[in-house]
From TrEMBL, chain A:
Enzyme Commission number: 2.3.1.234
Positions contributing to substrate binding: L139, V140, S141, G142, G143, D173, G186, D190, N285
Cellular localisation: Cytoplasm
Coarse class of the protein's main subcellular location: cytoplasm
Gene Ontology molecular function: iron ion binding; tRNA N(6)-L-threonylcarbamoyladenine synthase activity
Protein known as: tRNA N6-adenosine threonylcarbamoyltransferase
Cofactor binding, note field: Binds 1 Fe(2+) ion per subunit.
InterPro entries given in the database record: ATPase_NBD (IPR043129), Gcp-like_dom (IPR000905), KAE1/TsaD (IPR017861), TsaD (IPR022450)
Superkingdom assignment: Bacteria
Cellular component aspect of the GO annotation: cytoplasm
Keyword check for Metal-binding: yes
One GO BP annotation of this record: tRNA threonylcarbamoyladenosine modification
Entry cofactors: Fe(2+)
UniProtKB/TrEMBL annotation, chain B:
Stored SUPFAM superfamilies: Actin-like ATPase domain
Taxonomic path: Bacteria, Bacillati, Actinomycetota, Actinomycetes, Micrococcales
The gene coding this protein: tsaB
Name of the protein in question: tRNA (Adenosine(37)-N6)-threonylcarbamoyltransferase complex dimerization subunit type 1 TsaB
GO cellular component: cytosol
PANTHER family assigned: TRNA N6-ADENOSINE THREONYLCARBAMOYLTRANSFERASE, TRNA THREONYLCARBAMOYLADENOSINE BIOSYNTHESIS PROTEIN TSAB
Gene3D superfamilies (UniProt xref): 3.30.420.40
Protein's UniProt keywords contain Transferase: yes
Gene Ontology annotations of biological process type: tRNA threonylcarbamoyladenosine modification
Occurrences of domain Gcp-like (ranges): 14-129
Keyword line: Transferase
Annotated InterPro entries: ATPase_NBD (IPR043129), Gcp-like_dom (IPR000905), T6A_TsaB (IPR022496)
């Protein structure tokens, strides 16, 4: 096997995106994503069984598309990488079963990797300015909201904090529903907030009070915020007053972004780590990128935001992390690994 | 020579050959650990049969019925293996393999194959022997029935806890030889719409 610039095919099926990516070392060759998002829209959130069924249908064609895009054949692949958690168990198992069989059929090693660490690995695919460690990473999506300290991508990742209830992306979906906006809520709220005043309504910032900070310095909570928005809107309605949609959307979004960026920047300062990496689908939110940029600049923190196609769940980031493990000389995963829906971030490789 | 995989109940993996029959078969009736064991079983079945992937001419898979999460693991694995060796994927109805094994072991007359479908239901198929091509004659099913309302069997009722992949593979070999492929569709036999609990809609506040 080529250990200096291994050709790795990565498979990601932890949520509603079927991702197949191909990298050579740190060079991105293909990033194919098939999403079942539309099938979930009418349920207002990801339905695990619907997602798992869609993965099974999409995976084979996605592998074919990725190979075509990369201009390589399966026979050239040096190793397979696959997400084994965290995520939806039934969805993960489709990828795990397929990846094991693919590796065996090609007689190549398999690397089972952590989805969250994969999000950080996405940033390796920038050939011009390689990822530097240590870095703090803020990973925000519909499935997770986590703050990590990455000292070494393949051997030392620590969970600083995570959401204790809803993921940030979930909060966007739920508040969108309160406001009568369709799923997924992130882009809808972004659009509705145009022209709105982010300071119009002071919605609560979860786990930011001094009493909460003692136990939850880097944790997040968004369920109270969602309730506060619903209550505010209902009171307006009950009083027969119009609901200023743009102001509500902008103020809600500001509360989410304020907490996310505030805690991430605080972690950088506390730990003396002048680097912050963003990842996850919520990075698509324009205000999150804007606020992160300005506060990072003000604090002298180097902010890194991979291209959006590498921020949402994808197979390229899994391949990139797999390639790092190969290049670092790590042994492949034993074939007996399973899907672990609550895989801790410290378990980078199974 | 075929690799065959079934995860509709436990996990079973086999290597079969039309002339040589079932060359290797490994499995467990553990109905919870499909993703964990499927890789090791593929490796072990190939090793036991002394076969490398490139010598296989296809991959047969049990398409169910079976509990969804586990069922998908075997189908996904079979698909991916077929892709890896660039050979056909051959879908087979899992109950047919149970029936084929039963008749091959000397059973005669009517057979009702019953497997667990969770949620207090069984999946049920009725058979009436093997035809001229040695393929089982399925009269009804597979279909779901509440556990205490399974129709009376025409002959013997057989509750299967492990669908033998060797039989999945042999059915694929026999159907190919008889020019009777495909034996099943490409879609898993879920027999049940996905369980969705649409979240309670808030009234629209605009
Ligand atoms: Zn993710």
């Amino acid at each position: 096997m080529n250990r200096t610039r291994p050709l790795v095919l990565g498979i990601e099926t932890s949520c509603d995106e079927t991702g197949v990516g191909i990298v050579r070392g740190t060079t991105l060759l293909a990033n194919t994503i098939a999403s079942s998002m539309e099938e979930h829209a009418r349920y207002g959130g990801v339905v695990p069984e619907v997602a798992a069924r869609a993965h099974l249908e999409a995976l084979g064609p996605a592998i074919g598309t990725a190979l075509g895009e990369a201009g390589v054949t399966l026979g050239e692949i040096d190793a397979i990488a696959v997400t084994n958690g965290p995520g939806l168990a039934g969805a993960l198992m489709v990828g795990v079963g397929a990846a094991k069989a693919l590796a065996l059929s090609l007689e190549v090693p398999i690397y089972a990797v952590n989805h969250l660490v994969g999000h950080v690995g996405a940033d390796l695919l920038d050939d011009e300015a390689p990822l530097e460690t240590p870095t703090v990473a803020l990973l925000v999506s519909g499935g997770h909201t986590s703050l990590l300290l990455v000292r070494d991508l393949v051997s030392d990742v620590e969970l600083l904090g995570e959401t204790i209830d809803d993921a940030a992306g979930e909060a966007f979906d739920k508040v969108a529903r309160v406001l009568g906006l369709p799923y997924p809520g992130g882009p809808e709220i972004d659009r509705a907030a145009i022209g709105g005043d982010p300071a119009a309504i002071r919605f609560p910032r979860g786990l930011t009070h001094p009493k909460d900070l003692a136990a939850h310095r880097y944790d997040f909570s968004f369920s109270g915020l969602k309730t506060a928005v619903a209550r505010w809107v209902e009171q307006r309605e009950a009083a027969g007053e119009p609901v200023p949609l743009a102001d509500v959307a902008a103020s809600f979004r500001e509360a989410v972004v304020d907490v996310l960026v505030g805690k991430a920047v605080a972690a950088c300062a506390d730990l003396g780590v002048p680097r912050l990496l963003l990842g996850g689908g919520v990075v698509a939110n324009s205000r999150l990128r804007e606020v992160a940029r300005s506060r990072a600049d003000a604090a002298g923190i180097a902010l890194r935001v991979p291209p959006l196609s590498l921020c949402t769940d994808n197979g390229a980031m899994i391949a990139a992390l797999g390639a790092q493990l190969v290049m670092a000389g790590h042994a492949p995963s034993e074939l007996g690994f399973g899907a672990d829906s609550t895989l801790p971030v410290t378990e980078i490789q199974a | 020579m075929l690799l065959a995989i079934d995860t509709s109940t436990g996990t079973s993996v086999a290597v079969v050959d039309r002339e040589g029959g079932i060359l290797a078969e490994v499995g467990t009736d553990d109905s919870m650990r499909h993703a964990e064991v499927v890789g090791g079983f593929i490796r072990d079945a190939l090793a036991e049969a002394g076969v490398t992937p490139s010598r296989l001419s296809g991959v047969a898979a049990g398409m169910g019925p079976g509990p969804f999460t586990g069922l998908r693991v075997g189908i996904a694995a079979a698909h991916a293996f077929a892709l890896g060796i660039g050979r056909p994927f051959v879908p087979v109805v899992s109950h047919d393999a149970v029936a084929w094994s039963w008749y091959h072991d000397g059973g005669t007359g009517g057979l009702q194959v019953v497997t667990d479908a969770r949620r207090r239901e069984f999946a049920v198929s009725e058979y009436d022997g093997l035809d001229a091509d040695d393929l089982p004659v399925r009269l009804t099913g597979p279909e779901l029935a509440p556990r205490d309302e399974v129709p009376a069997a025409r002959g013997i009722r057989f509750d299967a806890h492990l669908v033998p992949a060797g039989a999945i593979g042999m059915l694929a070999e026999l159907a190919f030889a008889a020019g009777r492929l495909p034996l099943a569709g490409d879609a898993p036999l879920y027999l049940r719409a996905p369980d969705v609990t649409p979240s309670a809609r808030k009234r629209v506040l605009r």
